[in-house]
Each structure stands twice: as C-alpha cells, then as structure tokens.
Amino acid sequence: MHAHTSSSSKKDDQSKATHERGRSYRYRRFDCKRVFHLPCSIVHAACVAKSVSRAEDIQKEEAKVRRSQPDKPCHRPRDSLFSWSSGFDNFTGLVNWGFLLLTVGGVRLLLENLIKYGIRVDPQQWFIVLTGQHEGGSEHPSIILLMFNLWCRIKRNSSTNKTHLRRQSLSYHNFSSTENVANGLSNSKNKPEVGLVQYPDNLNLHDIIYFIFAPTLCYELNFPRTNRIRKRFLVKRILEVVVGCQVLMSLFQQWIIPSVKNSLIPFSVPNHLIWLIFFYLLFHSFLNLIGELLHFADRNYYCDWWNANNIDTFWRTWNMPVHRWAVRHLYIPLVEQGYGKTFASTVVFFISAFFHEYLVSVPLRTFKIWAFMGMMGQIPLSFVSRVMERKMGPRWGNIVVWASLILGQPLCIMMYYHDYVITHMGKELIEMYGHL
User: Fold this and answer.
1) Between the CA of residue 50 and those of 6, 23, 31, 43, 59, what are the distances in Å?
2) Where is the composition biased (Basic and acidic residues) (predicted)?
3) Distances from the Cα of 254 to the Cαs of 115, 287, 410, 416, in angstroms?
4) Residue 51: how many CB atoms within 10 A of its CB?
C-alpha cells in the first residue's frame, strides 16, 4: 500500500513536471506573440534581438570550446582591415603619413630653394610695393570716385528732414513706455534688449560706414550683433594676421619670383600652399578680426569646402559672403522670373568670371582672359565632377576638386604674373625686378 502510494505520487510529480515543462516550452516558443498586443514592429525587433543574442551565445560557447582544445588555437574568422566588410574606418595613421610626406617634400623644396637662391626675403621692399611708391607719383582715381559718392550721399541726406524723423521715432518710443508705466505693463518682458532700426532711420553715415567695413556683402537693417569683444580671441586673430602676412609675403618672395624667372620650374605646389595660407588668413583670421571689432555675430565665412564631392559644392561652401550675395541678388531673382536653374547658375558663373577678370586685369594693366576662361571652365568641370561622384564615388569627386585647386588656380595666377613681368618690364628688367 505504501509502495503503491509512493509510485502514484511519483507519477503525479512526473506528470506535473511534464506539464510545467510543456507549458514553459509553449511559453518560450510563443513568448514573442504573448506580449500584450504590442505593435508588430516591436515584437519583430524583440524576436530579432533574442535571435541575435542566441547566436552570440552560441559563438561564445564555440569560442570557449576552441580555446579549451589542447593545440591552443589562435585563429578566428575575421576580415582584413582594408576590406569593406571589416567595418574598420580608423585611418588616422595614413592621414598622418600623408602629412609627413608633404612636410618632407616641403622641407626638401625649401632647402633646395635656399641653397640655390639664398635668403631673398626683404620686408622693406614689401612696404615699398604695398604703398605704391615703386610706381612714382601715380594717381588714384578710385579714391576720387569714392569721395564724390560720399559727398553725394551726404548732400542727399542733408536735404531731407531726417532730424524730424529721428525725433518722431524717439518720441514714439517714449510715449509707448510712458503708457506702459501708466497701465502697469512695464516689466522686464516688455523691455526690448536692443532697439531695432527701422527705415528710414538707417539712412545715416554711421550705418553706411558699418556696412562698408562689415564682413558681408548682403545689407540688412539689423545685423546680428555680439554683446562684447572677446579680448583673447581678438589677440589671437591679430597675431594670425600679422604672422600670416609675413609668411605669405616671405613665401611669395622666396618661391614665386624665382619660379617666374626660371619659368621651366614647376610652381603649382608653392602657389597652392600660398593659396591655402591666404584662405586661412583672409576668411578665418582677418574676417573674424573685423567681425569681433564690429560685434558682427554671423561668422559663417566658409564651410567644409575641403570635403566637397563636386565643383558645385565647392563654390557653394568656400566663400560664403560672395555665395550669399550671388544667391540673394542673382540666382533667386532669375529663378523667380521663370528662368531655369541651369540658366541662373550659368549667369552667376558668367558674372563671377567677369569680376574675376576685372579684379585681375585692371590692377595689372594687362588684358588677358585667363581668369574669365578659368571661371567659365568651371561649368563643364562641374559636370565632370558630378559624373565622377556618381559613377566612381564621392572620393573621386573630391579628388577632382583638389586637382582643380592644385593645378588650375595656381597656374592661372602664375600666367598673369608671368605675362605682367614680360609685358611691362621686358627681359632686361626681370633680373632687376628680382630684387623683390
């Protein structure tokens, strides 16, 4: 009797355990569906996460078993680092290697230049050339035109009743503030931090001079302003401007002039280096210096043009003041008039090419079309860079951009410089001109 009771209790325990295991198995099997009516995406994500976790557990178990083998295995499945499937993307060492090669090459060129030409840097000649004393008693018609324009503006402003408009504007604000105090509405929320300038209060000499010196080409009634001048930031920009000008003129005097005198020597690398230094000096150091002094808050003078994957992106990111002016006053008005985007872009490049040619040919008194043709050549080059980006990837598009900068712009600049020396001085004066 006792044995029978014991056996029956064992059977009951076994059946109960089997029932519990079956219920647990069913729950484990269908637990992805027993989640209280959650969305399908969440259920699927939970199932995938559980599957991935299970696969990782299996791989860990297999790795643990392999490590316990007597031959001490040292291999495991993995891809080479240069394979895309490896997921490796840290190539900082290769970038450092590239900079090191550039540094070694630059030092080699510097030593070669010093050995062949010696030290040619003469700051005294910089002052003579920059002040125009080497040209004798030359006139400056542009200054006369600016003075006449300023005189016209002053006479026009004096003929209007500007004082009355200013007094009326100020009295209106005083009347409003008086009314607010009387009505109990004068609090910190109702007081503007800075009074906004309204038309025609902006028609004064102060606003004109501020817009002339502000680092922008697009006029606004109320520019974004900073609250104070950061002294440490200002000192850094001043040092960068001073040191950058010295480096720029030294490189020009030490590298460029000997390269022009010996026209067969390649000059793309020194020209490109000077262009990069000039970019940093103008768009970062100088414009930030002016912006800090004028409390100009919008410091977006350039974007990451060095990562541009095509020529269009480069021209939209490397010179933001000019880009904003071209978009605001040329591109958008043409598109709003019903012209196509391609036509509007071509017009923008044409006007940009004209001004590039004007700003180079007139000061040099040498009429050439190298700058104009170089700018208009950006249109087909833009198409080529977009095709390279689409067919071969963004990296090749960026290579096209850098190739145009390294080979195109320095070559165009040196062609003008070479033609200026040959045209205005002649071969017999090149050696005398070389004392710069």
Assistant:
1) 42, 20, 11, 11, 14
2) 9-20
3) 12, 27, 16, 18
4) 11
Query: Is position 4 annotated as part of the catalytic site?
Result: no
Which band of pLDDT confidence, cut at 50, 70 and 90, is reported for residue 268? low
Q: Could you give the angle at the alpha carbon of 314 between the alpha carbons of 310 and 316, nearest 5°? A: 120
Q: Grade residue 292 by pLDDT with cuts at 50, 70 and 90.
A: confident
Q: Which of 281, 279, 310 is nearest to 391 (CA)?
A: 310
Task: Report the chain's C-alpha Rg in angstroms.
Answer: 36
Closest CA to 361 of 415, 416, 418, 410: 416
Nearest to 379 by CA among 400, 417, 350, 341: 350
State the pLDDT confidence band at 388, using cuts at 50, 70 and 90: confident
Helix (H) or strand (E) holding 9: helix 2-30
Domain boundaries, the chain: 226-301, 308-436
Q: Transcribe 350-367 into DSSP letters.
A: HHHHHHHHHHHHHHHT--
Q: Cα 321–324–327 angle (5° rounding)?
A: 150
Backbone angles phi, psi at 225, to 5 degrees: -125, 150
- The answer on pLDDT for 283 being more than 50 is yes
Catalytic residue among 284, 356, 418, 424: 356
For the segment 173-212, what is each residue's pLDDT rounded down to a tens digit? 444 444 454 444 444 444 445 578 888 888 888 888 888 8
